[in-house]
């Protein structure tokens, strides 16, 4: 069995707790959502170009880069049937730090909660602008740990209000990292800072996708 890889590249991580550090990215094909703002919609299409690789081959390619931070993304990486096998193969190399970007619409329960190969999760909570809030699996919040992150990608004040409600309702700042990130180009970051100040959002971080500042925002493989 193989996994569908649409991109495998090294860059700086533009998002999350290791933003600014080098990371190797593995982007998988296919997603169960179609967020209005998705910047990798091409990777979601069934007929997009992908390479079929086994977990062992992906592990070899990651090791060959010499980079220790690994980000598994997509598309939606939790939909790959061999993900657990890949996580187990990567865990055999303890120098690797593995993180998964996931959309909040797939249960985290099968993915290594309490297992030695558990990765760090960055989980989105899809806000109204995405069009997919109804798909959120809120049971996932109780499976998150201190090293994990919940990210709210926001495009309006209504989104920010909703994010604030969810942070409060699930007491997220006491559970894990909490990030607000603008839908690129849709909302002025300054408006997000004003919102944070107005509501005294302690322990919440604003995050801007660094790679879209460094490179053309449409550029792939960076
Ligand atoms: C492309 S998704 C892939 C992983 C997974 N499907 C998810 O949604 O988390 C990776 C991250 O990019 C974010 N993202 C996608 N399009 C964006 C945009 N236009 N502006 C800001 N963030 C965006 C997503 O919200 C998610 O946090
Ligand atoms: N440089 C860079 N950093 C990223 N961090 C998360 C990404 C993603 O698409 O999940 C991403 C990405 O696409 N590029
Ligand atoms: S869940 Fe992630 S990959 Fe899927 S459409 Fe939304 S942003 Fe794009
Ligand atoms: Mg991206």
TrEMBL record:
Record: residues binding [4Fe-4S] cluster: 31, 35, 38
Cofactor(s) annotated in UniProt: S-adenosyl-L-methionine; Mg(2+); [4Fe-4S] cluster
Binding residues for substrate: 12-14, 27, 73
InterPro entries named in the record: 7-CO-7-deazaGua_synth_put_Clo, 7-CO-7-deazaguanine_synth-like, Aldolase_TIM, rSAM, rSAM_sf
EC numbers on record: 4.3.99.3
Binding-site positions, S-adenosyl-L-methionine: 37-39, 75
Entry binding sites for Mg(2+): 40
Transmembrane segments: none
Keyword terms of this UniProt record: 4Fe-4S, Iron, Iron-sulfur, Lyase, Magnesium, Metal-binding, Queuosine biosynthesis, S-adenosyl-L-methionine
Signal peptide (residue range): none
Pfam families noted in UniProt: Radical_SAM
Free-text function comment from the UniProt entry: Catalyzes the complex heterocyclic radical-mediated conversion of 6-carboxy-5,6,7,8-tetrahydropterin (CPH4) to 7-carboxy-7-deazaguanine (CDG), a step common to the biosynthetic pathways of all 7-deazapurine-containing compounds.
NCBIfam families with a match to the protein in the record: rSAM_QueE_Clost (TIGR03963)
Quaternary structure note: Homodimer.
Stated name of the protein: 7-carboxy-7-deazaguanine synthase
Upper taxonomic lineage: Bacteria, Bacillati, Bacillota, Negativicutes, Veillonellales
Gene assigned in the entry: queE
